[in-house]
TrEMBL record:
A Pfam match: PgpA
Coiled coil: none
Protein name in UniProt: Phosphatidylglycerophosphatase A
Cofactor(s) the protein needs: Mg(2+)
Length: 165
């Protein structure tokens, strides 16, 4: 994103006093000066490690709840900053990573593979990810393109697991 002036950011105080900013900015990982989406995805890894033992139904509930909350938090944070899909808003990357890791073994090398696959598809935005990114607005739009990228990453991950395990 090339702009002549910097995008508005919540202050550190606002980050910790406003739950919408706190979660939308991935507990502060979205403050990374370079590649905040990558930083947000990295912030999702320890949480994945904590939730990886959930049963599949509970893990799916986790995904649905974090997606729904993400729509709300990202919408509120985006509106407060007057910037749609602010680069520092990384909750969508976090949920995308967790979706990528659905049914994956919780070993470090699978966590790394999921990270790489998700980042590739999130950055490349193959169709219909690119279409959703352009056409869907608000908090839903912020979340949906990353979830669609995660579906591609999940399919690639499942294929990789099937080939290796």
């Amino acid at each position: 994103m090339s702009q002549s002036h910097p995008l508005p950011m919540p202050t550190r105080r606002e980050l910790f006093s406003n739950s919408n900013h706190f979660f939308a900015f991935g507990f502060g990982s979205g403050f990374a000066p370079k590649a905040p989406g990558t930083a947000g995805t990295l912030a999702a890894i320890p949480i994945y490690w904590l939730i990886s033992d959930l049963s599949v139904p509970l893990y799916c509930v986790w995904l649905v709840v974090t997606f729904a909350l993400g729509v709300y938090w990202c919408e509120k944070s985006s509106r407060a900053l007057s910037v749609h899909d602010h680069p520092g808003i990384v909750w969508d990357e976090m949920v995308g990573y967790w979706l990528t890791m659905l049914l994956a073994p919780p070993d470090w090398y699978w966590m790394l593979a999921g990270f790489v696959l998700f980042r590739i598809f999130d950055i490349a935005k193959p169709w219909p990810v690119s279409l959703a990114d352009r056409k869907i607005s608000g908090g839903l739009g912020i979340m949906v393109d990353d979830v669609l990228a995660a579906v591609y990453a999940w399919l690639a991950m499942q294929l990789l697991i099937w080939l290796v395990v």
